[in-house]
Amino acid sequence: MIENAFSGIIAYTVTPYSNDEKRINFEVLHTLIDQLIDSGANVIAALGSAGECAYLDDDEWRLVAKSTIDYVNKRVPVLVGIVDLTTADAVVHARLAEEYGADAIMVSPFSYYPLSEDEIFDHYAAISAAISIPIMIYNNPVTCGVDMSPEFMLSMIETIDNATMIKESSGDIQRMRSLYRLSKGSVRFFNGCNYLALEALNAGAKGWSTAAPCLIDDLPKQVIDAFNRGDVDKAKILFERQLPLLEFIVAGGLASTVKAGLEINGLSVGYARRPLKPLTSNKIKILKGIIETIRTSGGKKCD
């Protein structure tokens, strides 16, 4: 099954804008995709938090989804993020993602009113009934306003046909340990909290969902590879080398900090869309120092 191809690094793109912030720069998006694939990304993920999914209009969402899938051209699987307030809109986007050729979708139950478990369940069930590709359940309470327990997410995996994977981003490592223990290791789950990546692998995560390869190339992939071959000490060294960056991009706001880092690395992607603000000059200086330290300490190619 296609979900078995989902492991290792799930690399998230940003959505590049033109200088006037009104148009998406697809040429730069394609350059970034090539860089991520060259860095060893196992999966390309479009329209996640780093891609400012919640800030795009419907036409932009469609263009980014289709352009990403077409340009990747089956070199690696493509995961498309869906964040909609209404089930009807989520179903439309899920069908489009499948029509465009996405290998799977990642669904966040975005909320304005607090959602009950019954409402969340029905949301995922309706999306599943409309498509035939795998669904990754995405728990990110900070951005989505919904916090799903391991028990509830696993119950959806058991009873909703296309719900097969979980991305856990609450920042609580015990959630991932519970996912592994309660499913007896049978459910594929992925770490979405950058600074917990190594702990998550030890807890049974199948991979790491991250925008970090946008800034530090194959270093996240090297952590996964070292861990998978049993070289735990090497994995720890590689992970600790990049930890200051991982903590910085989470604390500074993912879209704004990753875009600033790409600019530092020479790829002009524009600012994050307002009301998000660009990094201050002081924070850019700090970020530049972190990236330079990683590279000069051997972080780009450590092996």
Class derived from helix and strand content: alpha/beta
Q: Helix amount, in percent?
A: 40-55%
Annotation field: number of helices: 13
Order of helices and strands: EHEHEHEHEHHEHEHEHHHHH
Task: Specify the CATH homologous superfamily.
Answer: Aldolase class I
Describe this structure in words.
The structure is a single chain. This protein has helices at residues 26-38, 58-72, 87-100, 117-130, 141-144, 150-159, 173-183, 197-202, 213-216, 219-228, 232-251, 254-264, 281-296; strands at 8-12, 43-46, 78-83, 104-108, 135-139, 163-168, 188-191, 207-210. The chain has 303 residues and is α/β, with parallel strands linked by helices. The longest helix has 20 residues, at 232-251. The chain starts with 7 loop residues before the first strand and ends in a 7-residue tail after the last helix.
List keywords for this structure.
single chain, alpha/beta, TIM Barrel, eight-stranded parallel beta barrel, 13 helices, disordered C terminus
Layout of strands and helices, then pairs:
Elements: E1 8-12, H1 26-38, E2 43-46, H2 58-72, E3 78-83, H3 87-100, E4 104-108, H4 117-130, E5 135-139, H5 141-144, H6 150-159, E6 163-168, H7 173-183, E7 188-191, H8 197-202, E8 207-210, H9 213-216, H10 219-228, H11 232-251, H12 254-264, H13 281-296
Parallel strand pairs: 1-2, 1-8, 2-3, 3-4, 4-5, 5-6, 6-7, 7-8
